[in-house]
Structure formats: C-alpha cells, structure tokens
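Lab notebook, bench 4. We co-purified these components, and the gel suggests they stay together. Before we commit to crystallization screens, I want a quick structural picture of the whole thing.
Request: model the full complex, all chains together.
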Amino acid sequence: MKYVDEFRDGDLIRKALDEIERLCEDGRQYRIMEVCGGHTHAIYRYGLQDLLPDAITLLHGPGCPVCILPMGRLDDGLELAERHGLTFTAFGDMMRVPGVNGSPLEYQARGVDVRMVYSPLDALKLARENPDLEVLFFAIGFETTSPSTALTLMQARAEGVENFSVMSNHVVLFPALKALLDGPDCRIDAFIGPGHVSTVVGCAPYAFIAEDYGRPVVVSGFEPLDLLQSVTMILRQMNAGEATVENQYTRAVTWDGNLAAQRAMDEVFVLRPHFEWRGMGSIPESAHGLAEAYRPWDAEAKFDAPAVEVAEPDEARCGDVLTGTIAPPECPLFGKECTPERPVGALMVSSEGACAAHFHYAHVEDLDILA
Amino acid sequence: MSATDGTPTDAASAPPVRFKDERIEMSHGAGGKATRRLVEGLIAPILHNPTLARLDDAAILDLGGPRVALTADSFVVSPLRFPGGSIGELAVHGTVNDLAVGGARPRALLCTLVVEAGTEGAVLRAELEALAEAARAAGVEVVGGDTKVVENGKADGLYVTTAGLGVVDDRLALDAGSVRAGDRVILSGPIGDHGITILLARGELDLEADLQSDTRPVWPFVDALAEAAGPGVRWMRDPTRGGVASALNELARETGLGVILEESAIPVRGPVRGACEILGLDPLHIANEGQFLAVVAADLAEAALGAIRSVPGGDEAAVVGEVVETPSRRVLTKASYGGTRVVDMLIGDPLPRIC
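Here is the predicted assembly.
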C-alpha cells in the first residue's frame, strides 16, 4: 500500500535503528515525550520501544483526547441525554469510557439512544433527516478534530437545523504542554510533536518550547520509519546542544498549518477561561467553548447541564501516566481491576491511551503482569 | 450448539470464566471476550453436559453407528444482501463450515426463518433461492425447519437459524489436546473480506472498495487436507466473529501453549488493509465466512498447504505461524524488522451484526 509499506520497510527500519545506536552518546540518557496518542499507539503496535537502545526512554504524553477528559464531563453529557430524551452521538472511542453511572454503551443497553458516528457531519445529517430526534454531538479532540466540529456548526447555523447541538470538550494543545514544562518534576528532554494536530496548527506555535524552555521539538508522522527518523533528528539536536523546531512530517504538515481550518475554529470557538484536564488539574485557556453566535447549538446553554462533580477513583494513577511520571504497569490497578474490557480510567479504553496500548501490545517480559 | 469459544481442557490452563454482567450489550454477540463470558460463564454451566463442555464448533455424538456432528447457528446480518453474498448463503455456509472444521462432512440442514411482517415476498424468495443454491453447492439438503412471523419493526426483515448434521470423517482425529509446540498454523486464504464488506455495505462510512464477502463452504479444502495430511491435522477453526485473533487466543487458552504469527505471511487484501488503516481496526479481529485455520504437525505442513492450494480458491493459503511453548497462553505477531506485539482477543464490537 502506497505511503504505508515504504514506511514499514524492514531493511530501512534496521538501518534507522543502527543510526540511532551510533548517535547515542556513552552514558547519556535521552528522555523523549511523544505528545500524541496516535504516536503512543504506533510505538507499541510496532514494538519500537523494544527495538530502541536502552539510553532512549519514550514518555507518553497527554495527547489522547479521550484520556484527558475528566469523567464528570461524560457524565454530564449522558445525564443530559437521558434526562431530555436526546440522541447521544459520539466517536467510537468514547463508547466504552466509564462514567459514574456507566459508559455510553451501558446507557444504550438501558434504552438511551446512543449512536456512534464517524464524523460530526454524520450527527448533523441524523438530525436533519430525523426532525423528531434531538441530536447531541459529544465533541472531543484536540485541534485535529476541532475544525470538523466547527464546520459542522457553521453548516447547522447556515441551514437553520434546530434539533442539533454540540457539547464541546475540544481542548487546545499548547497550554497543556506549557503546564507540563512548568511542572515541578518535568523529566522531558525533547518532544516528538503530534503529526495530526500540526497539519492544522502548523509548526510555528511550538517555537516557545525551543526558545523559552530549550527543548527540541520534531513534528513527526505515524509510521515506524517516521518515528525513528524523528528520534534521530532529536538526538542530533541534543548532541549538538541545540533546541529548534523541526518538521519530519513534511508530506502532511506545513510551517503555518491549515489556514482555512484555523479560520473555522476562530469563527466558531472561544477559549474557555479554565478547563479541567484529567490528572493535570485546571489549565487556563486550554479548551474551546462555543462563541456567542453559536449559542443556540451549544448543548450546555440549550439544556440545563448538570455539571456533575466526580471524584476520580482513588488508586487509579491516570494523571501520573498522562504526564509521563510513571509507566502504565506502575499503576496498582493496571491489568488487574483496570483492563480494556472493564476500564477504570479512560487511558485503558482508547486505542490511543497509553494503558490500553501497553496492555494490548505488552512487551513479552511484562506478560506475567497480565496473566 | 455452536460456540466460537474454547474451554480449558484442564483446570490449570486457565481460570474459569464468570458472567456477572448487568445487561446484555451488543459486545456480547461480537465473538470476543464478552461473548466468552456469556457462553462459558452463563450458557454452558446452566446447560451443562460433557459434550457441550467441549464448546467445539460442532458437537460430536457417538450414537452407536457412524459418529455424527451436530451444530446450529443464527444469522442476523444487516443488510440482508451485500457484495459477494446474502443472508441465505451465509446461513448455509456458517453452519456447514462449523461441521467441516469439526472434522465432519456436512450432510443435512434444518432451517428456521423468523420473518418480519411487511417483508416483500420477492425478498424472501430471493433469500430462499440463495439458500437452496448454496446448499446444493455445499452438497447438503435442507430437510426441515420452521417459519415464524413477527411484528413489523422487529427482526430486521429476516433472521435465519440453521442446524446442521454431519458425519465425522475417519481420516481426521481433531483434538486440541494433541497440539504440540512446533506445529504449524495454516490459514486458508486472505482475512477480513467479510467483515469489511459488511461494514462498507452499510453505507455509514463514505468509503468504497472493490471487495466482496468471502462466504463459501470450506469442506472441499478440509477434504483435501484430510486426504493429504489427515493424521497430522490437530485442530481447526473457522475464524468468524472475533477473527483470527480470537480463534487463536482460544487455542492458546485451551492448550496452555502460545502462537507466534509471522505478520508478513498473513494474507490480507489491499482494500481490507486500507479500510483497517483508516478505521483503526486490526485485520486479525475482522470476521471471515469462508476461511479456516488448521494446526498441522510440522512434518506434514507442506503437504497440508499443497493440498489446500490444489483446490480452486485455495491458492492464497499460507503457513502463517507456529505453536510455541512460551509465552504460554498468548498469541504474538512478529514483524519483518523484529518488533513483536501481543494479539489479544477482540474487545468490544467494532462491527455489529455481521453474520
């Protein structure tokens, strides 16, 4: 398959690994965070961690939108749907995420109209074709998915579709990265920048990480060779004592990003003053609410949002995993109370969650933990 | 009864499964972990008897004469017709294939129809004709059955249940307990065609692909396999719901052994790979309706592969992996560059109502 097979070529991968081995300086440790959940998934799926030299540690960042969503937001959405008889629509990733009173699939089994959609436009289409339904789209995602929600809302407004609303949980990447870097025990030497988010926002906004915090950033694609090449670029920067923003994923990402998508986001969204991130606490201006002109389609304004305050399970260390402080198996619930089938935390649900990735694609030596 | 799930042959190989789920969800029908809980944790313990406890695809009955195999399967696929087949064909193939991988030549079917009031006569006629033609091609007769009609709005047009009777083939002695480290895993052809075809046929995704269901009877391949390598064939399964990953995980659980798959050896068509890449699915979890897995002793593996390939439609069969001592009770895939990953059973339900 074009654009896939050539980036998984066994010979090229072995050559890239040799190059990385050569670049590792004696006695030096390289702690690299891949921000994006898609990268986390790819790293596990292709077993890259096992192939890399011990000197390189990959830390899994907070780039899985399902994982960073506090449980209370999902409860709010599901409560709204149940109380007002709404049709709850969301991406497949959300379907098994546990809320206090169950996951969307468990609500569905109890009779709430829960449907999986592949795009917010599908949710709008459902509303348009079924005027008797009141459709709620439970929107999640970073700048990768925000533009499609924005365009959907622009279309709903243009067509005057009244039986459709969005509960926005869209988050913004850079405030979270800043919060990580400002953390008291930040152990990150460099970042593998998220490929999909960067197709929208471009590379320019990462400059503060290099300039203010002295950490290299390489925006990367998702295939094994992309990731290995990005590691190579980071090692070269670190060995030379440099910190700049580089773009490895040139076949998809430009320096300035997708300007039309940025305009759509600017039109539809405003930054919320604060937003709660699972495991990271409240981060200022880190999420998108709907602008005044889109209030009629804002589920939180249209219906009385219950704002469920939910305590996260005590022993679950989702937050520490999200910030790269611990690896998934170091959580006491990992593989025991918390499994992909019966997840306690969202990191165990989404294919992009570090815990689910670690569970599904466990290193062979970890297998006894999962037995 | 038919079940896609295996059961431990000795108590030490795996802990018993308990059903404590509050409600039935769609995932309980998807052929993965939830299905296993339902079948092994609820249905089998309540209906308990030694034949059922084996939870094989077909039950083998010793009635004094030739040994017979008995199985049943229900079909609730939506949509009823899809590229490469329809519910009528599926209802024959699903059941005769459960007999075939149980080592039995299919002989007769019973067919029960649950029809939604309002279904067009022409639709029912077309499905019966498809069923009859598939039965003829598979060498079985539909010798009886039942018909029920339910209210409009139920049963999605048509649900079909078929029960199948077969005669156990003496050339084969299938027994998961005879599987040994070093045995080879043979796959009869490309995987994922059926599941992805149905997914695309629903039209909920704006994806199109030149692809059709692989629904077909597998007995001709099993027949050739039995002739060429009969004593070396240890175990067979048709990887329907839950896919190859779930079937091999059941084998691993049942035997206490492990399986290592060579990722590059697994045949997957381009459109299936493409759809799986886009949708984040693993072809190893996608359902098939015309393929089977066989574990064959290493010294007979080449002969077995040659036999399957000699039957029309079997040319893409491949040795895809090997049974290993460690890691026990796990299925792994190995990539060409050396990376390995664990392949778990299907969790949840990526593709509801595929058969």
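Chain A touches chain B at residues 1, 4, 8, 10, 13-14, 44-48, 50-51, 92, 95-96, 105-106, 108-110, 118, 122, 224, 340-341, 351, 359-362, 364, 367, 371 (CB under 8 Å). Worth comparing against the SEC data before the next meeting. The longest strand of chain A covers residues 56-63.
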